[in-house]
TrEMBL record:
SMART domains: AAA (SM00382). Pfam families: ABC_tran. This is ABC-2 type transport system ATP-binding protein. The keyword Membrane applies. Keywords: ATP-binding, Cell membrane, Membrane, Nucleotide-binding, Transport. PANTHER family: ABC TRANSPORTER ATP-BINDING PROTEIN. InterPro entries: AAA+_ATPase, ABC_transporter-like_ATP-bd, ABC_transporter-like_CS, ABC_transporter_ATP-binding, P-loop_NTPase.
Amino acid sequence: MTPAVSIVDVVKTFGSLKALAGVSLDIAQGEFFGLLGPNGAGKTTLISCLAGLSRPDAGRVAVLGHDVQADFREARRLLGVVPQELVFDPFFSVRETLRIQSGYFGIRRNDDWIDEILHHLDLAGKAEANMRGLSGGMKRRVLVAQALVHKPPVIVLDEPTAGVDVELRQGLWQFIRRLNGEGHTIILTTHYLEEAEALCHRIALMKQGQVVALDSTANLMAAHPGASLEEVFMRTMRR
Ligand SMILES: Nc1ncnc2c1ncn2[C@@H]1O[C@H](COP(=O)(O)OP(=O)(O)OP(=O)(O)O)[C@@H](O)[C@H]1O
């Protein structure tokens, strides 16, 4: 089966800094995949290359077989990205923001799906509120909603729960799990390692632009009996 995501020998430099020093990784369709690593490891840079927002110096990235550079529109359509940074037009309401995002993908009359997403993200009561009036955690949930408007088969979440309270985090994971159960591939970066441990089938640990461990969550844990994923992470990073 075509991988959901195929990353081959990707290098990305910023001046003398190698943010990605040759990363290769396949993520299968339907996986719940964790991309973990300390600040500056290269996770967001890799996601930017995947989303076509950043051009690698070398290597190839494809989404469901569509090359991100050569076939950008199709690759982008297959991908939903929840970015780390909160960037919005403050004058639009939540619903308008989601309608505009739907329009980018050529989707009209998307309100049934928009309402369903808003319901699952506990934002239904805020549909007509202006973005500038939302709290940080609510804005982050709108970012998640924005990534889902076009029902992408591959969903990338870059630290989606930063600043989201415990109850809503649970609701968010329930919804993401459901989407995964329905066949969507999920790629998650997070610094909450207990979340990654509970959710991800397979994990890549990144350090200084390289993948330093890549295995099923069960195998990673079995190699360090009695240790939590946080301890496995710390030991791997110290090596
Ligand atoms: N546009 C840029 N210009 C210069 N350096 C950059 C740029 N984007 C990223 N970097 C550098 O590349 C390295 C990898 O950054 P990246 O944001 O990918 O890390 P990360 O693993 O996502 O970290 P975090 O967990 O803090 O989000 C860092 O050293 C960062 O400073």
